[in-house]
Amino acid sequence: RMEALVRDLLLLAQLEGTQVKQRAPVILSELFASLRQSFEPQAQQKQQVIHWQLTDDLSLDGVADELLSAFDNLLGNAIKYTPTGGEITVRAWRDEAGTQVAFCDNGPGIEARHLPHLTERFYRTDESRHSSTGGTGLGFAIVKHVLQRHGARLVIDSTPGEGSCFTCHFPAA
């Protein structure tokens, strides 16, 4: 756990303290393939189904390893908090506002009072879950900083008892 904490703190410090790396086209289907390879075994262990919805030709102008880190945190949390037998949808699409990437689940959901604080360092919605989930409390802060570096924002929609949807909104070029 200490290793994970140090790794996340170093990543967060790097995101906050360095200039944005050279951007290049990042093909979302390639990022999704990497996520699928990393997370499908975990989802299968929990008998969860991940629905992948992506238009093959979508890309973003960005830094692939940073985007992968953000998406990794969002999908990891969806799997962690969605109960056994649950469903998760990973979806990407383009509309008039830009490119959207969403991670939605049918987990326990999050109370509205917690939503404004989720991207704060070490914020937890329930302290009793602290040791059982094994997280560092920095994942959403990392997501927020990666998105800011890409001119994007995170929108969180959640209903207790129904699930959550974390949508990354990347502006149109």
Summarize the structure.
Helix content is 39%, strand content 27%. It is of the alpha+beta class and 173 residues long. Helix 1 runs parallel beside helix 5, helix 2 runs parallel beside helix 3 and helix 3 packs antiparallel against helix 5.
Structure in words:
This protein has a five-stranded mixed β-sheet, with helices on one face. The chain has helices spanning 2-17, 28-45, 64-81, 130-133, 139-149; strands at residues 24-27, 49-54, 59-62, 87-95, 98-105, 153-159, 163-171. It contains five helices and seven strands. The chain is globular, with a radius of gyration of 15 Å. Helix 1 packs parallel to helix 5 and helix 2 (28-45) runs parallel beside helix 3 (64-81). The chain is of the alpha+beta class and 173 residues long.
Question: What attributes characterize this protein structure?
Answer:
173 residues; alpha+beta; five-stranded mixed β-sheet; two-stranded antiparallel ribbon; 5 helices; 39% helix; 27% strand; globular
- With helices defined by DSSP (H or I, 4 residues minimum), what is the helix count? 5
How would you describe the shape?
Answer: globular
**Largest beta sheet, briefly?**
5 strands, mixed
Mean pLDDT: 84
Strand order of the largest sheet: 2-4-5-7-6
| Beta strands, count | 7
Q: Uncertain segments of ≥5 residues (pLDDT<50)? A: 128-132
Helical/strand content category: alpha+beta
The helix-strand sequence is HEHEEHEEHHEE
Q: Helical amount among residues, as a percent range?
A: 25-40%
Alpha-carbon distance between the two ends? 39 Å
Radius of gyration: 15 Å
- Beta-strand content estimate: 25-35%
